[in-house]
Each structure stands twice: as structure tokens, then as C-alpha cells.
Automatic annotation (TrEMBL):
Residues 22-230 form the MacB-like periplasmic core domain. Keywords: Cell membrane, Membrane, Transmembrane, Transmembrane helix. The keyword Transferase does not apply. Residues 265-376 form the ABC3 transporter permease C-terminal domain. This is Putative ABC transport system permease protein. It is found in: Cell membrane.
Length: 383
């Protein structure tokens, strides 16, 4: 710490240059923090998927609908504890911007298979009783200002009603909460009754999107999955049964390879950052050649000079990185209503600080090596 005043003074030797370089790093780490938070949000549901749950869907695509008749056959497979089903509805509330997952489900079994979502018993009872009822996540309820008893109009994008209308209306009878605080935001979707949906839709009667299967023993999940798929092998509607985690990961990839996109954007921004920050460090060392020679003259070893230049690089990068990630933390709070689960968590902070250290080493490597190899006589003579 006794060398900190020296480091601080050299860092601010050229204030405009340092400020603009810091701003570049701050913007890069603001972007880094937000993109990593998006990655966390998209993968949170995948990581929290139940180990005792399987998803049975069409063999060639989960967009392929399956006969409702599969239900009893799956239920009879040894090792199966409970079975439910759901279908992707694909609707909007009021405008194209108000998109959230909407699914018709089996009202009798859905919350037995998904115990991580908590709904009051009286609300579940009403859901099972009222044909046009629906239940929504608490985040959606607060976002749109809904209350129990409201009529929620939804504009269908896939499933029109008989007669050609795309307008569906549901009565809000319940609100979902995540049982585990770490899953907060994952409950922000809407479910309504499949029997009402099946009766009112214009086509596709007697089909479901996929089956949600809860197994009695998670260790036997793979065996149970193979047994289910054997039932429908060589049939017109063959199935593929996979873990809940694998299904959710595949579903997310339908929106694009999020991790690849994030890595590409971050990689491009950091490549530019290395050029900008490396140039700053090179100029800084070039300007201080006589000063570095004096340090060597008064007893600083080559390793000490190298450490000083690397420490200056690390100080620059770490200060800017912390500011950038702090800004991304505040920004994520404003964006969270639009993307539930968006959070700059400890993992993002750890990645950011690690990236800042790597950046410091990369941009400081050449200048510090040059400083270490500096010849005192040539440096003081101006050669």
C-alpha cells in the first residue's frame, strides 16, 4: 500500500486521457453486467427445473401436438407418479409488447406436478370449478394492475376461437407465487383450463402440446422416459421424453442461442477495449521512461518496475469495472419488470472482476515488459 500514492499520481498524469479510457471500460462492463444478467434470467428456469420431472413431447419437435389419449397410457407406465399436460397458447395482452407465457393446462393435476408454484387452496378450488378462469403470476398481476375477479382479454396469435375470432377472455381467480425465493419471477405466466380451450378453439380438438410427468424416483427418470417412448414407437405420434431441464434449455434455444449471442457481443466489445486501453498504457509508459529509469537507479529491481506498471493497469481496469457493474446493477432494477429474473448477482460480479483482472494483465503485459527491460543509461540519455 505504500506505493499507492505513486500509482494514483501516475494514473491521473493525463486526466482527460484517463477519464476517456475509464469511460470506455465503464461502458464495456455496464454492457457485460447487463448481458450476463440476461443470461442468468434466461437460464434460471433451466437450473431450477425439477429433477423428478420429465417432459414428453413430439419426437421431431415440441411444437408437434400429441393426442390427449396418450395421457392414460403414460399414467400406466411403472415409475410414473403423476401426469399433467400443457399447450403453448401464444397470446398477447392489449398490445404486441405485452407478451408473456400463456398455457392451457389440466386444472386437476397441474399444481400437483409443479409444487414449486404456490396458489391458495380456495383459489385452486375456484380454478377447478369455473371454466373460463385463469391464474397468473404475482409479478404479472402487479405489472398490469390486475385484481382477483378481473376479466383479462387476450388476443390469440396461434389458436383462434370457433367462428374465427382471436379474442379470448378469462376470469382471474388466483395468483401464483414461487415457493422458493430464488425462483422469484419464474411464476410470471398465465394458466387457464384446457377443457375450456379444447371446446372453444377452432381446430386441434383432442390434442395437447406436451405431457408433464412426475416420477416416483428421480434416479429412475431415464428408465421411465425410455418406457414412455417405447409405448408410442412406430405410431403416427411418436414421442421424445426428456428431463425438465433439457426441455427448458431446448425451448429457450428456440429464441436463439442466447449464450452464443452474449459471448459474441462481449467478445467484440472487449477486443475493442484491449486496443483502446492497451494504447493508453503504452503512451503512459512511453511518457515516463526517464521516471522509470530513475526508479531503477535508486534501487527498484526489474520485477518491482514490472509490478508497478501492472498494478497501474489493474487499478485503472478494476475501478472502471466496479463502476460499470454497479451501473448495470441499478439498470437491471429498472429493467426487471420487463424481464423477470434479471439480476446482477454474485456470480456476475465474480465474472466481471475476473474479466477486469485478465484485461489488466493483457493490456499491461507489453508496457510492463518494456519498462522492466529498460536500459537506465539509454533512458536517461533520451535514446
Amino acid at each position: 500500500m505504500k506505493f499507492f500514492p505513486l500509482l494514483w499520481a501516475t494514473l491521473w498524469r493525463r486526466k482527460p486521457r484517463t477519464i476517456f479510457t475509464m469511460l470506455s471500460i465503464v461502458v464495456a462492463f455496464l454492457l457485460f453486467g447487463l448481458l450476463q444478467a440476461v443470461n442468468v434470467a434466461f437460464n434460471q428456469g433451466v437450473e431450477m427445473s425439477g429433477a423428478d420431472r420429465l417432459i414428453t413431447h413430439g419426437k421431431y419437435s415440441f411444437t408437434e401436438i400429441l393426442p390427449y389419449g396418450h395421457y392414460q397410457q403414460i399414467r400406466s407406465v411403472p415409475g410414473v407418479d403423476k401426469v399433467s399436460h400443457a399447450t403453448w397458447f401464444g397470446g398477447r395482452y392489449q398490445s404486441e409488447a405485452n407478451f408473456f407465457p400463456i398455457m392451457p393446462v389440466d386444472q386437476e393435476t397441474y399444481y400437483d406436478v409443479y409444487p414449486e408454484f404456490v396458489v391458495a387452496d380456495d383459489q385452486v378450488a375456484t380454478f377447478k370449478r369455473e371454466r373460463t378462469s385463469c391464474i397468473v403470476g404475482r409479478g404479472l398481476m402487479e405489472k398490469f394492475g390486475w385484481k382477483i375477479g378481473d376479466t383479462i382479454p387476450i388476443q390469440a396469435t396461434i389458436w383462434p376461437k370457433k367462428g374465427g375470432s382471436n379474442a379470448w377472455e378469462f376470469q382471474l381467480v388466483g395468483v401464483m407465487d414461487a415457493r422458493d425465493e430464488t425462483m422469484k419471477g419464474q411464476e410470471d405466466f398465465m394458466v387457464f383450463r384446457w377443457d375450456y380451450f379444447d371446446e372453444a378453439r377452432a381446430f386441434g380438438q383432442g390434442t395437447v402440446g406436451w405431457y408433464n410427468v412426475k416420477v416416483a424416483n428421480p434416479a429412475e427418470a431415464e428408465t421411465v422416459g425410455r418406457s414412455i417412448d417405447k409405448l408410442f414407437a412406430n405410431s403416427p405420434k411418436e414421442t421424445l421424453t426428456e428431463t425438465d431441464k433439457a426441455f427448458n434449455a431446448a425451448f429457450i434455444k428456440q429464441f436463439g442461442d442466447i449464450q452464443f449471442l452474449i459471448a459474441s457481443i462481449i467478445g467484440a466489445s472487449f477486443f475493442s477495449l484491449i486496443i483502446i486501453t492497451g494504447n493508453t498504457m503504452m503512451q503512459s509508459v512511453r511518457e515516463r521512461v526517464p521516471e522509470l529509469a530513475v526508479l531503477k537507479t535508486i534501487g527498484f529491481r526489474d520485477g518491482g518496475v514490472l509490478a508497478l506498471v501492472l498494478a497501474e493497469s489493474a487499478l485503472l481496469c478494476l475501478i472502471a469495472a466496479v463502476i460499470g457493474v454497479l451501473l448495470s446493477t441499478f439498470a437491471s432494477g429498472f429493467l426487471k419488470p420487463f424481464l423477470p429474473g434479471l439480476e446482477v448477482n454474485l456470480g456476475v460480479w465474480t465474472l466481471a472482476l475476473g474479466a477486469a483482472i485478465v484485461l489488466a494483465l493483457v493490456v499491461g503485459a507489453i508496457p510492463s515488459l518494456r519498462a522492466m527491460r529498460l536500459n537506465i543509461v539509454n533512458a536517461l540519455s533520451g535514446h
